[in-house]
Write a structure and sequence with these properties.
Helix content: over 70%
Strand order of the largest sheet: 1-2
Number of helices: 10
Shape: globular
Strand content: under 5%
Length: 285
């Protein structure tokens, strides 16, 4: 394990400790839903600026066989832990703008340090862009936390449900590809096969998450029918992508894993939907 790995692991460990503290000292339900929702926001932002616009690259040195997958793992660590934990901390404890400014300065300092250590690299991105974007990210976390405490219906229910379940389905879609090379996509967005795979995986899970939300909210279908439909949708999508020459499965369990993932994602979507409908215990007393 080298300096690169230690730095990323250290940042991740601190983030996990902070998340545990938040869950112990604040409303557990609202904090966890806000945290996962902010992971979803981070994933969407990274899809645009990192995946499709090639803004920067991470060097955590966890994935030895592929530098693109290694960088993606660094991006997942950043957007699934570090930034959403900080946003949840500020929102859960109702921190003022002095705390927000301090946190932005802290992250700008960490970004500068990672650049100096050559464990992170900018292409067209600049640290000032991070500093200008974080206030909006943290402000949205505060808004999301407030909404988590009341029963949600309509637009906000659908929006927040999507933000919460999309990183769940996205992570479980991409992580096996990174670690086990079970499939790759050949869509033609990028010349590099690994980058093309990550780009299409992103499109796939973002679209699949829309389907999960729609199926979960579609009342005419009985519950067993929803699972039958979502399994058939994933199976048909797999066959179509193979015949189009976009999807290439490399292991026997690839198709069955993603069908099982569709069931698990729909189950998670239904659970989160019910939780959003209920609101926090305090709002019902």
């Amino acid at each position: 394990m080298d300096l690169n790995s230690l730095c990323y692991l250290g940042l991740g460990f601190i983030s996990i400790i902070l998340l545990i503290y938040i869950c112990l000292k604040s409303d557990l339900r609202s904090a966890l839903l806000t945290f996962i929702g902010m992971v979803g926001v981070g994933y969407i932002i990274e899809a645009v600026i990192y995946t499709f616009l090639s803004s920067y690259q991470y060097y955590p040195h966890f994935i030895k066989h592929d530098p693109i997958y290694d960088s993606v793992w660094g991006a997942i660590a950043s957007n699934a832990l570090t930034l959403p934990v900080a946003a949840t901390f500020l929102a859960s404890f109702h921190k003022n703008w002095l705390w927000v400014a301090f946190t932005i300065g802290l992250y700008a300092g960490i970004e500068w340090l990672f650049l100096e250590l050559h464990i992170y690299k900018h292409y067209w991105w600049r640290t000032v862009y991070t500093s200008l974007g974080l206030p909006f990210y943290f402000l949205f976390a505060k808004f999301l936390y407030r909404k988590m405490s009341v029963p949600l219906k309509g637009f906000y229910h659908i929006l927040f449900l999507y933000l919460i379940i999309s990183p769940f389905s996205g992570s479980l879609h991409i992580i096996p590809i990174i670690f086990f090379s079970n499939r790759y996509y050949e869509f033609g967005l990028f010349a590099n096969q690994s980058k093309d795979t990550i780009a299409f995986s992103t499109i796939f899970y973002l679209c699949a998450s829309v389907v999960y939300v729609f199926i979960a909210k579609f009342q005419p279908l009985p519950r067993w029918g929803k699972y039958l439909v979502i399994g058939l949708c994933m199976y048909c999508a797999t066959l179509l992508l193979r015949r189009a020459g976009i999807l290439h499965s490399l292991v026997w369990w690839d198709t069955w894993y993603y069908i099982a993932l569709s069931f698990l994602s729909l189950l998670f979507t239904e659970y989160i939907s019910k939780s959003l409908h209920k609101g926090s215990l305090a709002s019902r007393i």
